[in-house]
Amino acid sequence: MRSGTRALGVAESYAGRRPNAGRGADASGSPDAESVLCGAVVRADRVVDGAGFGTCTVGGADATDAIRGLFADLGREDVRLLFVAGIAPAWFNLVRLGRLADAAERPVLSVSFESSSGLESALREQFSGDELDARLDVYESLPPRRPVRVGDDTVFVRAVGLDDDEAARAVRAYTPEGSGRPEPLRVARLLARSGRRWREGEGR
Q1: pTM to 2 decimal places
Q2: Do residues 168 and 14 touch, judged by C-beta distance below 8 A?
């Protein structure tokens, strides 16, 4: 991959208590607790080349549209690939990876960093009725999760628009030695945390 090839990494940050299960509200009763999203444009040679911010609802169902909007607002036609941190940001606000790839007209890679038996049992524990059915529908539509060895670390990747070998090469191309995390996602996570603290007044 050429050193100047750009990818967009999207990560989120929220603080506070989780929503009451199945109610779409946080524990204080607010129906619209928000998580800060950051999209960081990073070149394969690790140069940061832009960033944008958005929000999605904690415990909601708007993460896919929020990421799609963030990408559109950035207007970066030079971005060749999207990385997303996991599939369930903002407390099970599941990302429809196929819909996101179609909207962006770019391959999408969801990367997570811990081994897991899956989200189904957690979804069934936290939700019921129509909210559970909607989340299971999204979850069951996702591509399989594949381990990718990066140096001494293993990450777990779901890919739309790339086969397994292409996805592994892309993850390795954007992951600095010893980091264990693709640079677009590392930068996006740092900026999302800073953006969240600024919104809460901690950075003023």
Answers
A1: 0.91
A2: no
